[in-house]
Design goal:
Strand content: 15-25%
Radius of gyration: 44 Å
Mean pLDDT: 77
Low-confidence stretches: 9-15, 19-53
Structural class: alpha+beta
Bound molecules: the ligand Nc1nc2c(c(=O)[nH]1)N[C@H]1C(S)=C(S)[C@@H](COP(=O)(O)O)O[C@H]1N2, molybdenum atom
Distance between the termini: 71 Å
Order of helices and strands: HHHEEHEEHEEHEEEE
Helix content: 40-55%
Strand order of the largest sheet: 2-1-10-5-6
């Protein structure tokens, strides 16, 4: 057992207590000594010392028992400490690590849109990350025609792709093309001029001007991230009659700038 300073102090107190007590009994002797004859004195001394010895030894016994008890308590405390020490990570740090791990797990499950290539700042943005870029958010209705000539209107909410590339990713002035790649391998390549354009058409509504956007919400509902990437490239018509729907890219994995 390691020497505990508190235990040491207690031992000193108990020892001095026992010395004081035995000191009291010898004082008694002295009082007796002063007024009595040698013989009586001796007997008295004997009696006294015998009596004192009994008292002293019983006091000593009690003290010893007390010390043993205290020692037991300290041994238990010490063992507790040692078992805590064996696990080298202190409790508070363990709790913190737990918190960090929980946070990391949350981030891992959040799907991110990656922007790579000729940009000043490569990025990986979650839906929340894109939403936070409020000034680039665009909401509007997009007219579309597919390969079968089927037309429809769909409302989308998302981020203006050119604003995102220019102001956030800091696209290189030498960049010439942007490739949008989906997780299934479907991809669309656009020139920088096509991405810059902010006046795509809706042939049925002449006053509508649309940018190219990366949408995370369709007809008022956000994409379910359990079904994969929640990012969809949406574009209007370049000119009347443009079959624009096949140019949309669902479940985007990344955007590569060249
Ligand atoms: N990732 C991915 N995006 C895609 C496709 C695809 O196969 N994979 N098909 C395209 C075609 S041909 C059309 S017509 C539209 C269909 O859009 P919708 O899924 O919103 O109806 O998505 C386009 N985007
Ligand atoms: Mo299609």
């Amino acid at each position: 057992m390691k020497k505990n300073p508190f235990l040491k102090l207690l031992l000193i107190i108990l020892l001095s207590l026992s010395i004081t007590l035995s000191g009291c009994s010898s004082n008694k002797n002295q009082v007796n000594d002063s007024g009595k004859l040698g013989e009586v004195q001796e007997i008295n001394n004997e009696e006294n010392s015998q009596g004192d010895t009994t008292v002293e030894s019983s006091i000593n016994k009690e003290i010893e028992e007390d010390i043993e008890e205290i020692e037991e308590v300290f041994i238990v405390e010490e063992e507790k400490k040692i078992s805590e020490d064996k696990d080298e990570t202190p409790k508070e740090i363990k709790e913190e690590t737990k918190d960090i791990q929980v946070e990391e797990k949350v981030e891992e499950t959040e799907i991110k849109l990656k922007i790579e290539g000729s940009v000043g700042k490569e990025m990986a943005l979650s839906v929340d990350g894109l939403k936070a870029l409020k000034k680039h958010v665009f909401k509007g209705e997009f007219y579309s025609i597919n390969n079968f000539g089927t037309t429809s209107y769909t409302e989308f909410k998302g981020i203006n792709l050119w604003s995102l590339l220019k102001e956030e990713a800091q696209i290189s002035p030498n960049a010439t093309q942007v490739t949008i790649i989906a997780i299934d391998g479907y991809k669309m390549e656009f020139t920088i001029e096509a991405v810059m354009r902010q006046d795509y058409l809706d042939e049925t509504r002449p006053d509508v001007k649309l940018p190219m956007i990366i949408a995370w919400e369709e007809n008022g509902e956000e994409y379910d991230q359990d079904e994969g990437s929640p990012f969809k490239l949406v574009i209007g018509q370049k000119e009347p009659g443009d079959v624009n729907k096949p140019q949309w890219v669902s479940k985007i994995d990344k955007i590569i700038v060249k």
